[in-house]
Amino acid sequence: MAVIDTLGLPNTTGRKPLIVAQVVDALGTGLFLPFAVVYFHAAKGITLTTVGLMLSVGALLSLPAGPLAGPLIDRFGPRRVLVASNLIRVLTFTAYVFTDTPWQLVGLVTVTLWGDSLFRPAVSALVAQVADEGQRARWYAMDRSLRNVGIGAGGLAGSTLVGWGGTSGYTAVVALNAVSFLTAAGLVATWRRTAVLPPAGSGPVPAGDAPGRRRGGYREVLADRAFLGVLATVCVFALCDLALTVLLSAYVIEARGLPAWQPGMLFAINTVMVMLAQTAVARAVERYRRPRVLQVASVLWMVSFALFAVVPGEHVGLAFGGLVLGMVVFTVAELLQAPTSSALTVAIAAEHLRGRYLGLEELMWGLARVLAPIVFTWLLTRGAGLPWLALCLCCLAAVVVLHRLHRVLPAHVQRETVRG
Question: What DSSP string runs through 123-140?
Fold first, then answer.
């Protein structure tokens, strides 16, 4: 137990099927994620421009899914919504194999993204239910580490299948992803909370999902002015996070003219750091107030963006050294922000409205996914440093908002008491 605590891992007694389900889900996602664009182009014969349009339209049409997830989670409980989200994606990934008509694929992509948008708030809400008191941030950190491991391993397996089987390999990747969602759904559906031992001094853990009995709606959530401040920071953090996948490769290769192998190395550094350090960092900062931790993350992101902005394109070795340093600082900011921000949203939410709070958080991420490609590429064409400057200004605004939240949020929201 001492080793587990040192590593920052939570108590998982009675909840291991949920952990296995997350790993299986991440493995399947890792199989498909690196080949999402290439699959539709190579296996379905659709032009890259049309594929990009399909994915953008699907992302836009899936924006209402986050707010819709909130009432469903509050009414039916997160476990049922989580199972439903996985089953939705079982159906869509199975259907991908049997259709190659663009308009049908747009519909399937949209439904898939709806499933994704139901999945993320449902997972966050389920963690809030099952985690021991004071260990929510540790659970979010562990979930993030496991997903990185699963996605990394899935990506390697997917590369092997595609390299070995060509078009048949792409089909195998999609089919195996559907199987992974079905397996994860089965694990979550058959798990029962009665297997969880209550922590010492607490009451019994109720069976089932136990969704809140009180009724409420989004009007009550939007009246929570402190939470609106949290939502503003969520949008900023989502843009910062998406800079890694949407902006960095284009900046390194196109704007700075650096070798194409460098972004891959930078992504590898980020993945390894998250896998090895996420839970330990979450444990190290759990004694501090969450708005302060998020302020530090914002400042570190600003430092990383400044380092990215000043890399010289004419010196490959020096540029790579600067990019590596920037990536290390970026990842430390990410390690601080991700579990802390999730725990803050759950802590500020009234229990009977938790799904709606998390649904609006998902909406902020959805908006960021729609805006990031358009805004980042537009700024990049007008100046290599402009996207990084814009992100620095966003982080500065987040620091100001978080300072206000530090002053107005009650102590139990800002920091949980960890039981020994």
Answer: HHHHHHHHSPTT-HHHHH
CB of 319 closer than 8 Å to CB of 258: yes
Kindly give the residue spans of alpha helices, DSSP state H, lying in 191-246: 218-222, 225-242
In sequence order, which residues have a C-beta less than 8 Å from that of residue 118 and are 6 or more positions away? 65, 68, 69, 72, 81, 82, 84, 85, 88
User: Over 50: is that where the pLDDT of 200 sits?
Assistant: no
Quick check: 203 pLDDT over 50?
A: no
The answer to whether the CB of 162 falls within 8 A of the CB of 34 is no
The total number of residues shown for the chain amounts to 420
Q: Per-residue pLDDT averaged across 21-31, rounded?
A: 84
Pair 294, 137: CB distance under 8 Å? no
Q: How far apart are CA 327 and CA 306, in angstroms?
A: 11
Is residue 337 pLDDT above 50, yes or no?
Answer: yes
Amino acid at 116: D
Region class of 303: left (phi > 0), else alpha (psi between -120 and 50), else beta: alpha
- b/e for 58-72, b at 16 or more Cβ within 10 A? bbebbbebbbbbbbb
pLDDT of residue 105: 86
Q: ∠ CA 51-236-251 to the nearest 5 degrees?
A: 55
| Contact criterion met (CB below 8 Å) for 7 and 275 | no
pTM of the model: 0.83
* Contacts of range 157-160, beta carbons closer than 8 Å, 24 or more positions apart: 157/27, 157/30, 157/31, 158/30, 158/31, 158/32, 158/34, 158/35, 159/34
- The pLDDT tens digits of the residues spanning 243-275 come to 988 888 889 888 888 888 888 888 888 888 998
Q: How far is CA 114 from CA 30, 88, 326, 362, in A?
A: 19, 9, 34, 11
Q: Which two structure tokens, joined as six digits, stand for 379?
A: 């700024």
Q: How far apart are the first and last CA of the chain?
A: 11
Look-up of token digits 């700024």: 379
Q: Is the pLDDT higher at 414 or at 305?
A: 305
Task: Give the Cβ contact number of residue 161 at 10 Å.
Answer: 19
Please state the three-class secondary structure of 18-46 as a single string: HHHHHHHHHHHHHHHHHHHHHHHHHHCCC
CA 111/CA 181 separation, integer angstroms: 14
Closest by alpha carbon to 277, among 322, 328, 240, 326?
A: 328
Gap between the Cα atoms of 403 and 294, Å rounded: 10
